[in-house]
Amino acid sequence: MSSALLTMLPWVMDKIFIPLTQSKFAQSSAFITNAMFADFQDSNSIDDSNTVTPFQIVNPPFVDGYANVTSSHYLPVWVNSLSMANSVFYLICFAIYYVALGIFLYKIRNIHIKRNPKIMFILAITFVAIQSTNLVIRIVYDAMHIYAKVVSETGQQMSSSFFIALNLMGALTIFFMFSDFAFLFVVLFFFQKIFWTTAQLMGAISKKTLFIIQWTLNISTLVFTILCELMICLVSAFFFLQKSDMVGKTPTMGVYIGCFLVILVMLLFDGIVTVISGVLVITTIKKTTRAVMATSQKYHKTTTNTLSTGHMTPRGSIESEKSTNLPSAHAPVERTSIDRKIEQRIQSPFKVTFGLLMALVACILFQLVAAGIASGATEIDIIKPLWYFFNCLGVLIFAVIILFLFYPMFVNTEVAFKEIEISKTNAQKSHGFNNGSISQRSTGHTGGVSMVEKELMLHVAGSSHIESPSTITPTTETSPMESNKLLLQLPTNQTEKIESELSPSQNGTSSASSFMYQQQNTQQQQQEQHGFSLFPFGSPLSSSSSAMNSTAPSSYFQAESGPAIAFNHGVGSSSTQNSNSEMDIQLHNMMMMMQGGGGMMPSTFLELFNFAAINPSLDNSSNNNLMHTVVGGANTAIVDSNSDILLGKTNSETIIFSNTSPNSSDSSNNSKSNSTTVVEQSTEEFSPIACDHCRSQHRKCDKRKPSCYSCQQRGINCHYRESKRNLKKKPNIQPPSIVQKKRTETQYEPYSKPKTNTTTNKTSPSESTALTSSLSKPNMIDFYYDVVAGGYPLLSRQELENFAGKFDENQDLNTLVDFEMPSIYFSIKALCECQYGLHEQAEKSAEKAKKCLSRVFDNFSSFMVAGAYCKLIVYELWSGRFENCKFYLQILTFFEKKLFPQDCDIDSMTEYQQNLQGWIFYFDRIIFIDNRELKDLTVEDILKRLPAIFEFLHRKPFPAEWINILNTEITAENCFEIWSLVEMILNQSKAIERSNISASESSKFYLEIIELVYQFILDGARISILSKSPQRDSVVISGMIDQSAIQITALTENPWFPVFPLELIAFLNAAAKVHLEKAKTLRHTGSLIHNNTDYLTLLRKDLRAFNVMRSKYKAASAQPSEVCLELEKFLHEIDTSFVSSAPPMLDSPHNDLHTRLEEFLDEFLLDQ
After folding, report:
1. Are 974 and 959 in contact, with CB atoms under 8 Å apart?
2. Measured distance CA(850)–CA(1070) in Å, rounded
3. 3-state secondary structure of 637
4. Under a CB-based contact definition with an 8 Å cutoff, are residues 444 and 501 in contact?
5. CA dist., res. 393 & res. 389, Å (int)
6. Distance from first CA to last CA of the chain, Å, rounded?
7. Fewest CB within 10 angstroms: 264, 332, 572, 1061, which?
């Protein structure tokens, strides 16, 4: 490389450098220098006996316009060649770095990068750019130096202009090289702010201390940077003077050393401060994770000893190895998921902090080495290439480490975005909320979204706002990043259609509709201001996509509490299907907005639709393109298939949606009989028109019955006139009792099984009618093996189907000859009807089962009789009759002794006999162990039963060491250790249950339910364990508790939640209690939204989940838990205070055009 450069030198000198030296600037510099030293032209005859002072000129710099130097004044050619090779090498490295950075930025072009990451990349790019500029100047300087050396060795003299230009280029190399030091102070200052702010967020320092430190850093950085630049200019000037023989090497050496000491003190000060702040952050994180990491190492061996000494049979039992009881030396050590979660959620900030800190330390080290070498390079010029090498190496290491640390994060974030987009696309394609519903665990996040680690590294991410996984409703889910962007708005052309449909006259409608549109735009802008975090810690989609994206019958779907939108799939020609899809997407997005996802109170949003009363002429059966209707008592908003809101006002909390498939071939025939399900019925009544008093006063009326708000404030009677059209044609509105009954009876359709490529259920009118009255035999059998059996049926499907096909349920039981099969058949039927919500039919079936058992109760050798008693125990548990359960259990225990003697070999039992023995073990050792009713169990009570659950599934004793750990008092040091053990036990139990279900006749859909149920238990267990820690209020632990509670709430929105076991109500209580405590804390602030999490929405969802449980299980409805009652009371207070705090409508300056529009519509309806 050096030889190639030397070959190019003559051309370069002729074309570039010599013209440069002949420039006006170089000639002027030479003239000024010659004039300055004109008196020293004869100084060659200086007496050697005289003492030369440090600043005395040894030789005149110029003689007759030529440099007065010899060839020894220049460095050897090989030294400059090596320096040039070093510069070219690092230029290539920096070019590759820029190319890699460009490719990286291209890949993440669709990702909005936040402030701090932007600053980080700008600093790195600028740092490299300064060094690259220095390298280019250095190449020019080295080339000129080589040329001067070669020319001087031939005996020629260099012109003064060339000599001045050469020394100026050398001074510039010194200036740019040392400028990296000044820029390094800026970089250190940036990291110091991040580390110190993070330390304050974690509680390591107080806010007052942070304020003092920040001001100290601001002042010190400003002073150090200015002082450093002055020292750099001084060093560059002395370099030029010394190379021009104007100043001796002694004063130049002094200036170099002084500059080095000043910079050394500055770098050491900033470096120490940065290290201290970083250590504070790292120490706090390590304290949190130390116990967990120790637990994972401690229990790897215990897990291997316990579980690896045998293998799992298809039924989940463990067969011991005959060779040895010791753990296998080659047994693989399995990491529990807590290890992965801690590494991802807590150790990731640690890695980022530690990596950046080490990059800074390495950069400082190499820069100090370069500065030290530079100080001695004035005397030993041969080591100059080494000086340049270390200087460039420090910059390159810093820039490369920055790139390598951030690249995986951006890639992971991009993957998370793709998952969110896929989920959103699936939601849009499926015309429903199953895959696109608001997921507490989806967004972002994304994820959440873990909120704790985002808050800990908040300033590293550069966000002043943290997205929660409810954005998380969101964020699946979460994602926290993209879910808010799902809030699509009605296009302008649609708002124009709204205006045209509201009234034949266009007066006033424009401002009303634009008001709604502006409100939506404002809401959208608020959503987009926050952006998203670059750190995908605990991406909700990645951690629980199965929770919210699981396939399930849409009739399982439980709509969220709070105001909602009708979801009625239109039918008709293929040309209208696309518009239907777009409409559904927009209705979905509007629903999300009304449920608090946008941070707007539901009633505030619904007021935007307060344009007119319902027009009864718009009916679903009027044409082939179904109207999509939002029903709320007497107030209805009607939306046609083309996404146009025609008329209406939604001011309730009712959701109606249809299960009719728009793709079915006979959809046109079924358009008039769409099966709808009312999820929640509003108790308030509203009039379709304003009251007489408000109409006469031209005031805004809220149309509330029996009295509007305006009349209540005045203390006058409120009277509503009946619409003439309503007198002619009364709307077919069913009473709440009938609606509630239909809601209960149509929550599950066993034949509507989840299908991968099916987005809606196909339910004919006849099937729907049959389902609302009773369960057919095929439906009941499907439901039993899909859900009710819990993966452990007591008889084969074929046997049950054969009996059901021949058995007449309506025959007189006294005429039966065999009562054994009827007894278990009716007990199974009672369970299915109970969980299906048909409580009256379930009671009748249970009575028939008991009547059959009364004839065969003494047949102790009958497996079917024992199975019937087992099913009745479960039914009585669900019904809340605890004493009956214990009575039947005593009978069943007696049957067990007769059916399964002590010497009975478990391997000789059939699958159903093992299942019955498992049910008995479950009742005796888990449910009735302390005579507490199932609804009164707490999470702590269930955790105490972990040893019994372990023994039941693993068929071996629970390790004594684990029992000691579970009984240990929870502290800040061992809370993660205990949680790690609990998680490992639950994961092992889940694996065995999955194996059991896979080997049985149970529906494979129950595998999905198992995943959700165990996730529900894991989140609840985490809340229970971490809540007992003395450090419960710390940022990390409280954040993990909040995240677990949000995840539980998200699971209650899963389509499978209505069939979750009754035992899980304890975990729901734990999550609701966390949300309730948080909401009470936030209530005094005037807003229940914190960190982008709407706790009012979460509480409403928790209450909806309680209501679902109470509708399924009488045990939960007879005596609601204290948390549920407190939750109802709190929401009632919130709703009451919201209404009472609203400004009187008679005094509020409402839009006059809006009011007149309502009056016009009222008159129009009255005239009709």
Report:
1. no
2. 37
3. strand
4. no
5. 6
6. 96
7. 332
- Residue that the structure tokens 């994304």 belong to: 446
**CA-wise closest residue to 166 among 147, 183, 184, 152:** 147
pLDDT band, very low/low/confident/very high, at 569 (cuts 50, 70, 90): very low
Name the average pLDDT for the chain.
Answer: 62
The amino acid at residue 223 is V
Q: Tell me the CB-side half-sphere exposure of residue 487, using CA atoms within 13 A.
A: 30
Q: What distance in Å separates the CA atoms of residue 437 and residue 591, rounded to the nearest whole number?
A: 10
Among 217, 209, 205, 351, smallest CA distance to 274 is for 217
For the segment 416-431, what is each residue's pLDDT rounded down to a tens digit? 445 445 544 554 444 3
Sign of CA dihedral 273, 276, 280, 282: positive
pLDDT at 1151: 45
Q: Alpha-carbon distance 493 to 487, whole Å?
A: 18
User: 627 Cβ partners below 8 Å, 6+ apart?
Assistant: 568, 618, 619, 620, 638, 639, 640, 641, 646
Distances, alpha carbon 930 to alpha carbons 889, 890, 892, 940, in Å: 14, 15, 18, 13
Of 137-151, 194-208, 839-853, 1133-1147, which range is least confident? Answer: 1133-1147
Helix (H, G, I), strand (E, B) or coil at 645: strand
The residue extents of the domains of the chain are: 1-17+73-108+117-303+336-419, 774-930, 932-1120
What pLDDT shows up at residue 287? 64
* Tens digit of each residue's pLDDT (9 = 90 or more) over 669-687: 333 333 333 333 344 577 8
Q: Which tokens is 151 given?
A: 């020319």
Task: DSSP for 117-148, please give it.
Answer: HHHHHHHHHHHHHHHHHHHHHHHHHHHHHHHH
Max CA distance (Å), the chain: 144
Please list, in sequence order, all residues whose beta carbon lies within 8 angstroms of the beta carbon of residue 1073, skipping any fewer than 6 positions away. Answer: 1123
Q: How many CB atoms lie within 10 A of CB 287?
A: 15
Neighbours of 1153 (CB within 10 A): 15
Task: Give Cα separations from 512 to 499, 508, 517, 1130, 1161 (angstroms).
Answer: 8, 7, 9, 35, 14
- Helix (H) / strand (E) element for 656: namely strand 656-658
Alpha helices in 378-476 (DSSP H): 384-429, 451-456, 458-461
Q: Where are the alpha helices (DSSP H) in 959-1094?
A: 960-966, 975-999, 1005-1027, 1035-1052, 1065-1083
Which residue stretches of 593-723 are H helix? 602-607, 692-697, 709-714
Rounded to the nearest angstrom, the gap between the alpha carbon of residue 40 and the centroid of all alpha carbons in its chain is 78
Helix axis angle, 882-899 to 863-879, nearest 10°? 160
Return the SS3 of 328.
coil
- CA distances from residue 371 to 313, 387, 391 in whole angstroms, order as listed: 69, 8, 8
Q: Do 590 and 650 form a contact (C-beta atoms < 8 A)?
A: no
| Each residue's pLDDT tens digit, 166-189 | 888 878 877 877 777 777 777 777
Q: Say if residues 832 and 874 touch (Cβ distance below 8 Å).
A: no
